[in-house]
Amino acid sequence: MKIVIGSDHAGYEYKAKLVAFLTGKGFDIEDIGPFSTDSVDYPDFAHAVATKVEEGNAEFGILLCGSAQGVTMTANKHQKVRAALCWMTDIAALARQHNNANVLTLPARFIAYEYAEQIVDTFLSTDFEGGRHEARVNKIACSC
């Protein structure tokens, strides 16, 4: 499974650890940066991850920033992206089961790293339930 991951400076340390964690589990990881804690603009990385997912170049995306609000808002501007801000494993499971989320966003300043790993595991191992949720998910994209 191909996963693309990015962050801003606040999420850099968690991102670096998650790259190693996911690579160790056998996932194909594309790290689009940043590659230091130097200040960066989160939309640059959120758009890059969302574009890869939207174009089918990755099955899932993972984004991190301090609160995860900015990267979530940015990624969700892409029509084929359903980014979910998850701070608990239950939220990650529901985001996949009911919303078929394809980008996980994590608030690095508000969760322990070890819990971030659990959230990622839950997100990646949970399937979309389809059924009654399918019609709702199909109404998310703007057809304006």
Beta-strand segment tally: 5
Structural class: alpha/beta
- Overall mean pLDDT stands at 97
Helical segment count? 6
Query: Into how many domains do the coordinates divide?
Result: 1
The name of the CATH superfamily reads Sugar-phosphate isomerase, RpiB/LacA/LacB
Largest sheet: 5 strands, parallel
The CATH class is identified as Alpha Beta
Unreliable sequence segments: none
- Cα radius of gyration in angstroms: 14 Å
Listing every helix as H and every strand as E from the N terminus to the C terminus, the arrangement reads: EHEHEHEHEHH
CATH topology assignment: Ribose 5-phosphate Isomerase B, Chain: A
Shape: globular
- β content, as a range? 15-25%
By CATH, the architecture is named: 3-Layer(aba) Sandwich
Strand order in the sheet with the most strands: 2-1-3-5-4
Give the proportion of residues in helices.
40-55%
Quote the distance from N terminus to C terminus. 33 Å
Binding site for D-ribulose 5-phosphate: 8-9, 66-70, 99, 109, 132, 136
GO molecular function: ribose-5-phosphate isomerase activity
Keywords: Isomerase
Pfam families: LacAB_rpiB
